């Protein structure tokens, strides 16, 4: 499924569609076992990362951003999918090489 963009996956969580009843409740919520909140709030967090990713991909300047906050948000959202991978990523990005 590498041909589907990050924006596509983020849009599955968006509001203004009937994905809640047809996708989120029956199955999609299982992709985020670490999430305990509203689908809309998760969408906002992932959309923040989508915008950041697009800025980086299109070579927009990001040096003025609070990059530590951006990094923490990436790890936070990764934790919603896989807490162990989020811990490993945090350790790896801090110079550690241990695996969970």
Strand content: under 5%
Number of strand segments: 0
Sheet having the most strands:
none
* Helix-strand topology string: HHHHH
Contiguous low-pLDDT stretches (5 residues minimum) are: 96-100
Output the structural class.
mainly alpha
Helix content percent band = 55-70%
- Backbone CA Rg: 15 Å
Span of the ends, CA to CA: 26 Å
Number of helical runs?
A: 5
- The overall average pLDDT, rounded, is 88
Overall form: globular
Structural write-up:
It is a single chain. This protein has 100 residues and is mainly α. The protein is built from five helices and no strands. The chain has helices at 6-11, 19-24, 39-57, 67-81, 83-93. Helix 3 (39-57) packs across helix 4 (67-81). The longest helix is centred in the middle third of the chain and has 19 residues, at 39-57. The radius of gyration is 15 Å and the shape is globular. It starts with 5 loop residues before the first helix and ends in a 7-residue tail after the last helix. Mean pLDDT is 88; it is low at 96-100.
